[in-house]
Known about the structure:
Helix content is 13%, strand content 33%. The chain has helices at 16-27, 86-92, 144-150, 153-156, and strands at 32-37, 48-52, 55-59, 65-72, 125-126, 132-137, 166-175, 184-195, 198-206, 212-222.
Amino acid sequence: MIIEARYNGPEDSGNGGWTAGAVADELGATGGTVVTLRFPPPLDTPMSVRREDATIGVYAPDGTLVADAAPTTVEPVADLVPPVGYAEALAAAPSYSGLVAHPFPTCFVCGPDRAEGDGLRLFAGRLPDGRTAAAWRVPDDVSQVMTWASLDCPGGWTVGIEARPYVLGRIAARVDDVPAPGSECVVVGRLLGAEGRKAYTATALYGPSGTRYAFARSTWIAIG
């Protein structure tokens, strides 16, 4: 498998959510999948996939384990991150901290330096209760992997990564449906807790009528 350079998080490695979605797609499990990112995913680099029973490992050309994945049951998050309307998410966008300070401004999912139609530009603004909400007009090339990617950064911005950079370490996600191209969706995030260099978040993707398409629980690792 290859993570194309377009799908970066940090400038020189893959976006965590996109990479996790690609790895989950390789696993092919139905229901929930947990993906652990072990090493910064290299870009435009062929990686090998090794399957063992119900799990897979993804390896760089030098044999470094980049990620592994296994089926899992993902605890629902509806009570933690209830739906937010598209208009409310748009209104929150100017409070998106990444517009002022962003450790990875070219990130495919949330980078403000990405042009419309190139990156997803999910600008997760703060809500009064501390959650984040990112309005997302779904692009024509939406896929299950992109749906995984949408669950990534809106959770990270609940941690305060503008002050101390974090990267995705593990994500357990369930995608029940992929939203239709052109639909007005919202990704909602919430910080669940933090301990040392780790932070824990929940995210959910909702459609125009409040239909939940996907949800995730994630572990973030501070790198600064």
